[in-house]
Design goal:
With 330 residues, the chain is α/β, with parallel strands linked by helices. It folds into 2 domains: 186 residues, Rossmann fold, CATH 3.40.50; 119 residues, Rossmann fold. The protein contains 10 helices and 16 strands. The protein has an 8-stranded mixed beta sheet, sandwiched between helices. A 4-stranded parallel beta sheet has the order 13-14-15-16, sandwiched between helices. The chain has a two-stranded antiparallel ribbon with strand order 2-3. It is elongated and about 65 Å long. Keywords: Hydrolase. It comes from Rubrobacter marinus.
Length: 330
């Protein structure tokens, strides 16, 4: 039987690490070849080629890195890879996977994974996550699902996946839908399939369009919002309280900013969608939307920021940006 060809690309992370000395922290030392050799069962699931695409701590990964990675993934798929696994540190996987999901237009499974426990600790989870990810990437059942996040034998859609705990190996959750499936006895099971796909075409050589992310809070007076326009940002996402509500003192600076750049209204709650026509007091969602803010729908602030940044890179107009956020509700 011919095994499927799977490409494993590393952005960094702690699936393979060393400790530099007594009492010192852990430093990622992952190479693609060592990663695969550390889990011999992979050879029974797929024919794997592995490469260190980047070696970065996850907070150092940029959208530019991900644009280049998306191009490399597309080349691998066009070259015959049945699927791709990307490893990186867990801190920003929910963001990296979402960007790749927006950039890629391939049916082949693209799976992101990593490790919560580095190899110097008992019960390191990296090898099991890697093996499960290769199996998912090689599975016909995972085709057409977009980018996936596989941890703790659960299969999550990038559009929903969130890191919810600083240390737990079960850190990745997908509110409100839950995982799409799981891996049982080495076999991927897909129980749910998301409706539709969302893509943003970013022209080659496009420049970064930085978007600020600020959260609303009790007693916020809005002074930070006024500063955003002077700091070179191309857009703003505000994580409002509840269903999309802010103190009345912030309405004027947000309205002024929305007249100059796209301002997206998300919720800091982490689940549900921004309301549109329920409350109508000063600072309510109806008030803010009437001032020009764009509701983020079900996207949290982190994902809304990345979608807005990619849309700005693509040259989208204000109406096209609003339409792109509207489509998340369909």
């Amino acid at each position: 039987m011919t095994l499927p060809q799977i490409a494993v690309l590393s952005l960094g992370g702690t699936i393979s690490s060393t400790r530099s000395g007594s009492g010192s922290g852990v430093t990622p030392t992952l190479t693609g070849e060592a990663l695969v050799e550390s889990v011999p069962e992979i050879a029974e699931a797929a024919e794997v080629s592995a490469e260190a695409f980047r070696q970065l701590p996850s907070p150092e990964i940029t959208v530019d890195d991900l644009v280049e990675l998306a191009a490399e993934i597309s080349r691998r798929v066009e070259g015959g890879a049945a699927g791709v696994v990307v490893t990186q540190g867990t801190d920003t996987i929910e963001e990296s996977s979402f960007v790749l999901d927006l950039l890629l237009d391939v049916d082949a499974p693209v799976v992101m994974t990593g490790a919560m426990r580095n190899p110097t600790l008992p019960g390191a989870d990296g090898p099991a996550n890697l093996l499960a990810s290769v199996r998912v990437a090689a599975s016909e059942a995972a085709r057409g699902l977009g980018v996936l996040v596989v941890f703790d034998d659960e299969i999550h859609a990038a559009r929903y996946a969130r890191k919810t705990h600083t240390q737990s190996t079960a850190t990745f959750k997908s509110p409100p839908v839950g995982p799409l499936g799981w891996v049982s006895e080495g076999t991927p099971r897909v129980a749910l399939r998301p409706v539709g796909r969302h893509h943003v075409r970013v022209p080659t050589g496009s420049e970064d369009r930085p978007v600020a992310l600020l959260a609303g809070a009790l007693g916020d007076d809005g002074r930070l919002f006024s500063a955003v326009g002077e700091l070179g940002y191309a857009g703003l996402v505000v994580e409002a309280t509840g269903g999309g509500h802010m103190p009345s003192s912030t309405v004027e600076p947000l309205a002024d900013l929305a007249a100059r750049m796209p301002v997206v209204l998300a919720s800091r709650t982490g689940s549900g969608e921004v309301l549109r026509r329920t409350y109508d007091f000063p600072g309510s969602e109806m008030d803010l939307i009437s001032c020009g803010l764009i509701p983020a729908g079900p996207l949290d602030g982190r994902k809304a920021r990345l979608l807005l940044s990619l849309l700005l890179r693509s040259g989208a107009s204000g109406d096209e940006i609003s339409g792109a956020f509207d489509r998340w509700l369909r």
